[in-house]
Amino acid sequence: MTTETTGLETELDPAPTAARPGAAAPSPARGRRRTPLPYLLLAPAALLLALVIGYPLVRLVVISLQDYGLRALFTGATPWIGLANYRAVWDDDQLLPVLVRTVAFCAALVVGTLVIGMLVALMMRGLGGRMRSAVTLALIAAWAVPNVAATLVWQWLFQPTYGVVNWLLTQLRVFGDFQQHNWLSQSLSAFAVVWTLVVWQSVPFVALTLYAGLTQIPAEYYEAAELDGAGYWTRYRVITVPFLRPILLLVSIMSVIWDFNVFNQIWILTKGGPADGTTTLGIWSFTKAFAAQSYGQGAAIAVVSVLLLLALTVYYVRRLVRSGEEL
Length: 327
Known about the structure:
Elements: H1 2-11, H2 37-64, H3 70-75, H4 84-91, H5 95-126, H6 129-144, H7 147-157, H8 164-172, H9 187-214, H10 219-227, H11 232-260, H12 264-269, H13 281-291, H14 295-326
Helix pairs in contact: 2-14, 4-14, 5-9, 5-11, 6-9, 9-11, 11-14, 13-14
Region (Disordered): 1-31
InterPro entries: MetI-like, MetI-like_sf, UgpAE/MalFG_permease
Domain ABC transmembrane type-1: 99-316
């Protein structure tokens, strides 16, 4: 018995070969030889990204450090003024309201998109095959509509005189008379219209992505939890959310990037009005550059937007990496 045990221990001995007497130490260079082939394969893509993304960013920073106005378009003279454009933006009384408005609007869009997208994904999981296919086609159709075309359609829907929304609400006779009601004449209702439009366009991607994640969760976990007496909310909190955490973080990152840069919808519907009530950083940068003919200050506002967005993205990416390590 002792001999068998000793032989088994010897056979399963995890001690490395280098620790045994008389054994040769492994070569430290073995397995560490690097080949330049991966870098050569990545070089074309890296060069393309540097040209497409890097050059515009560098050019944006350069313009923000120059006195680049309407006169520069004719004379070509763009003297360096350092951080003067940033100081002008910092001293502008409009900076704080625009910044708060942008962050609040972005947060409302992200929360609304994730909540509605999750509800649609959960609904799709409970539908039959044909109904699920119909919902999927409807989501893809809504997602495929270009931003400008969709915004023009929604502008017609909320048109004060001939809009379908005012006509429908008036016919229902529940919310009162909405004839000639201008939804875009007040900041809150204008933001509500823009919020509805952007969420309508963003929900399809989030819903389809979350539904794909739901299909990867083993059904045995739900069955075991149900046998243990767990209710629907408990199963959702203990099983669904932990499994979908990496996907939720990923779609959150993408939603923050998209919603922070919303421009077409706001510009077509309100142009930042009424009384600058729907002006975000993107709208402010555009009006500074092209309406006020101060391209340097417009570029400075754009650089500030990029830095804020980069900080938010780094935070979410770190959360995503940590979530992947925990799994």
